[in-house]
Task: inverse folding
């Protein structure tokens, strides 16, 4: 009783220390991203009010004073970081009267919904395809899956969007090409967003499954008389899926925020279109806010993936 309880307590303490360590590293990473983005953004010549039509020097000076852009750069940085610490991402320069927090809160759910469906589609397609390719190694099925995954990785998303729109909308007239007014509007964006990660996961799962199937413990399980179904799901799949879990972290963050190109092509009112608009319009607070938000999402996803790693395979040393 006592050794088991001590071991369990030790494992919980180790996990807690690891989570605290990762949280501290995450905060440092987000701080570094915010600092680099701020100074690199201000190194670009020009300003957010350079494109204003027929603006007088006095009006430009007044706008810069309103948004604090007339202050020294280091003072702007300390003010922004202090506001960021309190959760305030500032006012949008181009969308007058709206804060960056409001824009992200409004646009992110749209990208998250499309991206979430794309993630589920990618996992449900990529993992089974990779497993089937490994079990059918050297057969025609394996070759077809390899060709499919290679094309999915090699073909850019804007080409996939163009092909889908040309075939499914222009030629066949089956699906709408813009907006998100019905469930049919989600089909082409989800296919375009999920094709690359599904193809990548299929290749990753195939190579990982082939490696696991050649391990000694798989041959031992077979020698002990375990059925193929039990050996596959209890031993092979659980170990082979670890590289896929590693990939899920950054993939989820990128897909949930949304592909900028896909959102632009299908006129999806998500966070991606706002980010592109903020760059072209030099909306400094919105650029900073969306970049920090994406970095934070990426870091959180990676931490969750590392914790899931330990749950899936208890043998992993968190140190």
Result:
């Amino acid at each position: 009783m006592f050794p088991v309880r001590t071991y369990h307590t030790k494992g919980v303490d180790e996990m807690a220390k690891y989570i605290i360590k990762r949280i501290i590293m995450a905060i440092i990473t987000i701080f570094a991203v915010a600092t680099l983005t701020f100074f690199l953004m201000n190194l670009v010549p020009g300003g957010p009010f350079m494109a204003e039509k027929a603006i007088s020097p006095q009006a430009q000076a007044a706008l810069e004073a309103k948004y604090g852009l007339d202050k020294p750069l280091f003072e702007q940085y300390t003010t922004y970081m202090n506001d960021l610490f309190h959760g305030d991402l500032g006012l949008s320069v181009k969308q007058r009267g709206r804060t960056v927090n409001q824009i992200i809160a409004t646009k992110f759910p749209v990208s998250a919904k499309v991206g979430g469906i794309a993630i589920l589609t990618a996992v449900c397609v990529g993992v089974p395809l990779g497993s089937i390719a490994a079990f059918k190694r050297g057969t025609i099925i394996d070759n077809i899956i390899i060709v499919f995954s290679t094309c999915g990785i090699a073909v850019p998303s804007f080409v996939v969007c163009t092909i889908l729109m040309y075939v499914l909308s222009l030629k066949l007239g089956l699906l709408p090409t813009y907006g998100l007014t019905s469930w049919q509007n989600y089909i082409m964006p989800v296919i375009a967003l999920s094709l690359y990660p599904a193809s990548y996961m299929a290749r990753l799962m195939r190579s990982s499954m082939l490696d696991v199937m050649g391990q000694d413990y798989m041959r031992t399980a077979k020698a002990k008389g375990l059925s193929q179904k039990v050996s596959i799901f209890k031993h092979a799949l659980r170990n082979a899926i670890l590289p896929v879990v590693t990939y899920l972290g950054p993939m989820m963050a990128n897909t949930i925020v949304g592909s900028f190109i896909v959102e632009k092509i299908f006129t999806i009112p998500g966070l991606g279109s706002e980010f592109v608009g903020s760059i072209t319009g030099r909306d400094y607070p919105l650029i900073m806010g969306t970049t920090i938000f994406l970095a934070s999402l990426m870091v959180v996803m990676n931490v969750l993936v590392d914790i899931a790693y330990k749950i899936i395979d208890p043998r992993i040393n968190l140190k």
About this structure: Confidence is low (pLDDT under 50) at residues 1-5.
